[in-house]
Amino acid sequence: MAKLSDSQLVVLSTACQRPDGCVFPVTLKLKGNAVGNVLKSLLTKGFLEEVPGRADDTVWRYDDGAPLTLQASRAAYDELGIEPETDPATEGRHAAAIDDGGLVGGTPAEQGIVAAKIETRTRKTDQAPRTRGDSKQAKLIEMLKRPEGASIEEIVAAFDWQAHTVRGAIAGALKKKLGLDVTSEKIEGRGRVYRIA
Question: CA torsion, points 72, 87, 58, 79, in degrees to nearest 10?
Fold first, then answer.
């Protein structure tokens, strides 16, 4: 796992939990241009990407007059061990921008492509959130389903994560996004142990 600061992890995990992977609005509270610096560093590392903005989007920057906003890249989902509801490179903000009619012309060929993307995205959003079998998220779920569960320290050792990343993955990806019933209890000698009921 890349060395990411707490601020970078907050921005990435928030964006990855949104259906379109959009970074904005940024919920992180920092002084001055610190948020901008966090976003630039994530963009440089390849965890964020610039995508065409729509009229109601927060604009990151303009390129020849065209508004650009920021979206979590596939690398961000992989880094956090989250399976996106849609592939950010092909189905996320790009398809949403096309769906809203603002960015692509209306030739019959283009309309067919747009219709196919919209249909695919609609089918995918009707499905329950899924996890790749070989992802870190799947392995974390497997650890928590064991009868003895797993402590923060055990998960940190298994994934080379920091403790706050473990807690964020449990609260965000497992509980909020996947809707899993994760319980915890303090056990003497092991600390706080988490289990999936």
Answer: -10
Nearest residue to 61 via CA among 41, 45, 77, 40: 40
3-class state of residue 84 by DSSP: coil
CA–CA separation, 82 and 51 (whole Å): 21
What are the distances in angstroms from CA 146 to CA 13, 91, 133, 143, 193?
26, 35, 16, 6, 11
Could you give the CA distance from residue 38 to residue 13 in angstroms, rounded to a whole number? 13
Length of the chain equals 197
Write out pLDDT tens, residues 30-85.
777 788 888 888 888 888 888 888 767 787 888 877 888 888 888 888 887 777 66
The tokens of 163 are what? 């403790």
Cβ atoms < 10 Å from Cβ of 70? 26
Closest alpha carbon to 88 in 3, 5, 16: 16
Show the tokens assigned to 64.
């020849």
Amino acid at residue number 55:
A
In angstroms, the CA 135 to CA 141 distance is 10
Amino acid at 178: L
- Here the tokens at position 69 are 């906003």
Domains, in order of start, for the chain: 6-126 (1.10.10), 136-196 (1.10.10.10)
pLDDT at 102: 40
Determine if the peptide bond prior to 25 is cis (ω within 30°).
yes
